[in-house]
Design goal:
Number of domains: 2
Number of helices: 12
Mean pLDDT: 82
Number of strands: 2
Order of helices and strands: HHHHEHHHHHEHHH
Low-confidence stretches: 96-100, 104-112
Shape: globular
Radius of gyration: 21 Å
Distance between the termini: 51 Å
Strand content: under 5%
Strand order of the largest sheet: 1-2
Helix content: over 70%
Largest sheet: 2 strands, antiparallel
Length: 300
């Protein structure tokens, strides 16, 4: 999810709020398909395509209809609330659930409970307790997906196409002058971003066993927080280091969240994160003000 937010926020320099809708979109699509006995890998792939489509709609609204990026994301996010409810509505007809669709109570119960259950059955982890095997499955599968996404993004953005996409985010006018079709680059970039977010939602649904329309709430804040934490530690020297930093930043963010829950102060975490993001984003302005005051004091 954070990799997806990074592509829209840092690479394209586009504040895309549709990720808060594409996360539950990926979750609801995967959950419904798995519930009707579609193989979990195919369900996950279809969920990714759902995210790609949602991102393309945001890009079209922004580039073709000239709607500001932030409003385009809000429009898509708002529309996806209804779409996700419709998807869960199909599920409620067969499951009787009104608010959410439960794949199952755990990833190991039932005939077809997602990619984690598939891993468990394939590699014969019955010798472990349910709790241990569940954690091993989540760590290994999530780690594998992160690695694949990292390698794919790194090499994709090193190609001529990837450099064109990055150039679009850096300087749109200069990219146009070089013959790059910037509207197409924006649409493709937002599609990739939301496809990754939908993948995250699909894995989340298969891990927790539920899909809910509110599961994407705060996704953009989590993504930005993880990016900023990673950049504070590693900086933004190279694209490779930037990708590594946001992955590390993601782990650190959720580690801090776990510590906050353990200490019983988790209700203050969002406030601290909001203050941190505001401070980091405003830091160049604050630095400029301090410099001006320093220069003024020196003249006095």
């Amino acid at each position: 999810m954070v990799l997806g937010v990074y592509i829209s926020y840092r690479v394209l320099d586009c504040a895309d709020l549709s990720v808060e809708g594409t996360f539950p979109l990926g979750a609801t699509i995967a959950a419904l398909l798995i519930f009707v006995n579609v193989p979990p890998i195919i369900a996950t792939i279809i969920a990714i395509f759902g995210g790609l489509g949602a991102g393309a709609i945001t890009g079209l609204l922004h580039t073709k209809l000239k709607i500001p990026a932030i409003l385009s994301g809000i429009i898509t996010m708002t529309a996806l609330v209804s779409i996700n409810l419709v998807i869960l509505g199909f599920a409620s007809k067969t499951s009787g659930s009104l608010a959410s669709l439960a794949i199952n109570n755990t990833v190991y119960k039932g005939a077809n409970n997602g990619i984690f259950k598939l891993f468990h059955d394939t590699f014969g982890m019955e010798s472990f307790t349910k709790a241990i095997s569940s954690k091993i499955s989540v760590i290994l599968i999530t780690g594998a997906f992160v690695l694949v996404c990292y390698v794919t993004i790194y090499y994709l953005f090193g190609t001529e196409f990837g450099m064109s996409l990055r150039a679009t985010g850096n300087n749109k006018k200069m990219a146009n002058a070089q013959g790059i079709n910037t509207p197409v680059m924006i649409i493709i970039g937002l599609s990739i971003s939301n496809g990754l977010v939908a993948l995250s939602g699909a894995l989340f649904a298969q891990n927790t066993g539920t899909a809910n329309v509110d599961s994407g709430k705060g996704a953009i804040v989590i993504g930005l927080a993880a990016i900023i934490i990673g950049e504070i530690i590693f900086g933004k020297k190279t694209f490779k280091l930037a990708l590594i930093s946001i992955i590390v930043g993601s782990f650190l963010f959720f580690l801090l969240k776990a510590i906050a829950i353990k200490l019983g102060v988790d209700h203050y975490l969002n406030l601290v994160v909001a203050i941190l993001i505001a401070f980091i984003l405003a830091f160049p302005v604050i630095k400029q003000i301090i410099k001006k005051r320093g220069a003024s004091d020196a003249r006095d």
